[in-house]
Amino acid sequence: MAMSQTNLASVQSAPSVAAAEPDVAVSARQISKTYGEVEALRSLSLEFPRGQLTSLLGPSGCGKTTLLKIVAGLLEPDSGEILVNGKAVTGPGPDRAFVFQDFALLPWASVIRNVAFGLELRGVAKSEREDVARKYIGNVGLAGFENAYPHELSGGMRQRVGLARALSVDADVLLMDEPFSAVDEQTRRKFQEDLLSLVQNENKTFIFVTHSIEEAVYVSDQIAILLPRPSRVLEVIRPSGFRDSGAVNIRRDPEYLDIVDKIWASLRSYVE
């Protein structure tokens, strides 16, 4: 099925002037992946604009996390290629950082050691890496918990540590695999608001896997709707009319509600 692109926001521009194409940070080109007899991805192509957040949304088992891991260099595709900043991905690299669903923290290390761990592996001096770690610990709302250990933190706080760790290595691309799925609804909403600020302020490209239609529409500059296995891109939606209306007002915006309904109509027949 051919990929379509929808922009539900009204755009005022001269008919003779073409809209500028966004700068692309990551390109997935004809990606296919099979696990044994299970065909997860089939000739999937998708572009991820630089400095924006793209959500991967689709039915359970449609290959969202598989695609994310291929972009990360943690999995090798059977065919096709991933380009990051125009260079082919052949494995993990410092230009990408992964935020795991299950936190993946070091249980024996303090918050500041966990956040600085990627910089420690790179050989950054202790004073420098701890300065960077403190900055991002503060940015995710954990100032004062630098010396706490993971078992002393709530699930939401542990996820903030994982996010701070990913930010601290200053990768161009942040890969987020359902990072808010294990927290309660109130914490999840606060995380979503914080994520909007991070996307605006950090000048990084975010690729975000979620099962939540509402979450995808709320946080995303671009939403890629994936078909069930073997996964391809059904449609790309770029909500823009409410992006400047403020975090508190987005969920009341008519365009937000319309896009949520549109996506559910597209996915409803594929839900088991």
Q: How does this structure look, described?
A:
The chain is α/β, with parallel strands linked by helices and 272 residues long. It has seven helices and eleven strands. Helices cover 32% and strands 24% of the residues. Helix 5 (185-202) links the parallel strand 8 (173-177) and strand 9 (205-210).
Number of helices: 7
CATH architecture of the largest domain: 3-Layer(aba) Sandwich
> Might you state the CATH topology name of the largest domain?
Rossmann fold
Mean pLDDT, as a whole number? 87
State the CATH superfamily name of the largest domain: P-loop containing nucleotide triphosphate hydrolases
Low-pLDDT regions: 1-19
> Which percent range fits the helix content?
25-40%
* Structural class by SSE content: alpha/beta
Q: What is the overall shape?
A: globular
Beta-strand content? 15-25%
Largest sheet: 7 strands, mixed
- Distance N to C terminus: 21 Å
CA-based gyration radius: 19 Å
List keywords for this structure.
about 270 residues; alpha/beta; Rossmann fold; 2 domains; 7-stranded mixed sheet; 4-stranded antiparallel sheet; 11 strands; globular; disordered N terminus
Topology overview:
Blueprint: E1 4-6, E2 24-35, E3 38-49, E4 53-57, H1 64-72, E5 79-84, E6 87-88, E7 96-99, H2 111-121, H3 126-139, H4 155-168, E8 173-177, H5 185-202, E9 205-210, H6 213-219, E10 222-226, E11 233-237, H7 254-267
Parallel strand pairs: 1-11, 4-9, 4-10, 7-8, 8-9
Antiparallel strand pairs: 2-3, 2-5, 5-6, 10-11
Helix pairs in contact: 2-3, 2-4, 3-4, 6-7
